[in-house]
Design goal:
Layout: E1 18-25, H1 29-39, E2 45-52, H2 55-64, E3 69-73, H3 81-90, E4 97-101, H4 106-115, E5 119-122, H5 128-161, E6 165-169, E7 175-178, H6 180-186, H7 191-194, E8 204-207, E9 212-219, E10 229-235, H8 242-259, E11 262-267, E12 273-277, H9 279-283, H10 288-291, H11 301-313, E13 315-324, E14 327-337, E15 345-351, H12 353-401, H13 407-431, H14 434-438, H15 441-456, E16 459-464, H16 473-492, E17 498-506, E18 509-516, H17 523-526, H18 532-543, E19 547-552, E20 558-564
Parallel strand pairs: 1-2, 1-3, 3-4, 4-5, 16-17
Antiparallel strand pairs: 6-7, 6-10, 8-9, 9-10, 11-12, 11-15, 13-14, 14-15, 17-18, 18-20, 19-20
Length: 570
Amino acid sequence: MIPESTPFRFAATAEKPKTIRVLVVEDQEDDYVYLDRILRKAVFARYELTWCSTYEAGLQAVAARQHDVALFDYNLGTGTGLDLLRESILMGCEQPVILLTGHDSPEVDREALGAGASDYLCKNGLNITQLERAIRYSLRHAAMLSSVKKSQHQLELFMRNVPCAVSIRDDEGRYVFQNERFQTHFENAPVSSIWQSTPSSEPRSFTDGEHYWLVNSFPMGEAGTGQLQGLAAIEITERIKAEELLLKATALLNGILKSLPVIAWSVDEEGTILEARGSGLEGVGLNGDQLVGRSMADLSTMAAAEIARTFQAGDSNFILPIQHEGREHAFDTFFHHTKARGRGAVGFSIDITERRWLEKKLLLISDAEQLRIGADLHDGLGQHLTGIACMAAALRDRLKAQNLPETKPADEIARLVNEATAQTRALARGLCPVQLDQSGLSTALEHLTDQMEIVHGIECHFRSADEPFECDHDSALHLYRITQEALQNATRHGKATRIEVVLDSSPEGGRLAIEDNGHGFDMQQNGSGAGVGLRLMRYRAGMIGGNLSIESQPQGGTRVECIFPFLISK
């Protein structure tokens, strides 16, 4: 074990940790020394601390803007940490501030949040994990906030310089933004002549007698939220006649369609393509004129099924896969049936290939982090607990040999440490399923169900096909995590006493099913997959080209089934 006085030295092969400059405003030297001592144990970064023992010195240090994060004590003699925080914000300082107090107080917690503190920590019992996590999260939040402010500034700069009049107003009709062009030409215009009570996507004409404009007002939020409303007006000049106005409006809309990676569709009730256009076609090597007369089923059988559903439900939303040059592109597709357009349907597809790739990478990073935490639990905390258990057992045996009354407490300590060791290993196995790499998916799922029986004391059985499934690690991990989430829901929320996990084949491909005898839930009342866990299971299924279905009813148990194609080979 490394003594507390010995600085932590990173291995020569490890990446050099980042240095974080920390301002500590604390009037008690002992508390500062304690913060300095625990931060020296940090693993994720190195910390350079600057100590200010008074309110005034802290304010000067904040004004210097030389630190990445600040720790303010609540009691600072001539003022409080909250006062210092407010003055820092008024000075325009953007460094995140964590407020420290000697005694936990809900009132101070709420006041700190309202004042703009990134976090609020009680110094009593404060450890390196809590403090470093608070610092890391505060820095990340500050970076995100800075990025948002930068984006807002860039957006405002853009709207001030675009060659059109732009304004934004709230739901009470008060202007919150106007660029110079809008102020020049529309400031004295009657509100009713330029704003519509119900925003429309169709541009409207407006004239002040000298200038002619094409005006469009639109909601800046979801329908029905009563949030901001925007307006953009393009000057079309007094020389353009009514017929030319229509042509320019059409040209503007066509330009938008051509500049975005989208495809606009028009189909009849049989799913035959009547019209297809948009720059999204070019990205996948398709020609709109050549698609006319073909069935959407030629592109994807899923498209045909969803369009058929459009005429039953009125809307459908699905992912349309299109193969091009050995790569599968994904289009988020929406179809709507309107009686005004006859018996057909119209829709649009947005290319989300890159977005899905990024989402997959983020999910893989999250899984990798779970694996790392599991390994740390097993190799770090688990080993320490094992050592403590051995020492406790040895102490118990020595006390027992001397027939001392402390034998019973020592035996209880050894038992509790052994239980903690077992729980730690169970957690590590859940986060880091080593069987997945060593023996494959079937063995990993069998081991997972065995652990559920041991930890929760319930019946949990696993069945698989005669021939084991062979699949790549990423696909196997998605199926493993789906099973893990379903088992946790069954025990934690469903209070199940019996669970069965099945991995076999179906006519459509592979099949993973998890069925329990728990309380279940009302699908109509709660929605199919409204929770975060269920949404994540559906997303994981989609990542391997599968489809997740959930069947449940109160007191009737729950069944989760994932059907996936045999790109996972058998």
